[in-house]
Design goal:
Low-confidence stretches: 28-32
Mean pLDDT: 86
CATH topology of the largest domain: 60s Ribosomal Protein L30, Chain: A
CATH architecture of the largest domain: 2-Layer Sandwich
Shape: elongated
Distance between the termini: 62 Å
CATH class of the largest domain: Alpha Beta
Structural class: alpha+beta
CATH superfamily of the largest domain: RutC-like
Strand order of the largest sheet: 1-2-3-6-4-5
Radius of gyration: 26 Å
Length: 162
Amino acid sequence: MTPRRATVLAGLAGLILGIVATVALQRDVFAQPSRNARRVIRPEKAPNTGLPFSPGILAGNTLYVSGHLGRDPATNALVHGGVEAETRQSLANIREVLRTAGMDFKDVTTVTAYITSFDDFAKFNAIYREVFPGDPPARATVQVAALNNGAHVELQMIAVKP
């Protein structure tokens, strides 16, 4: 074999090995789930309404929590007791979503609260302060004409894991 052929064969062998190594590394990278992959968060202890939505969606380190009514997880019915009881139950249900995603209320960055009457605003805030006593997240509170199943309050949140 001539030195030139040996050099060409060595170059081809190196090229082939480089291609094989690149493909192997890419397969390994693609086989691992992306940090930004979308994952449905569905706690075991959560109301199952049968409606087409997920309790939470985790995308990267951000959790988008769907609107939650004050439903009893065992019966799916609204809890009795008005806005205070419904707010407590809604927060309890959301805590389950947060915990399933490895978070808690300290990770919540924003809240949207829907209430059917601003006459209940003080009662709602008293319960809300139990969960967010200091440095609460950003929040918008909107009075709406009606909520599903005659609910008084619905809470939606976004949380970010540092």
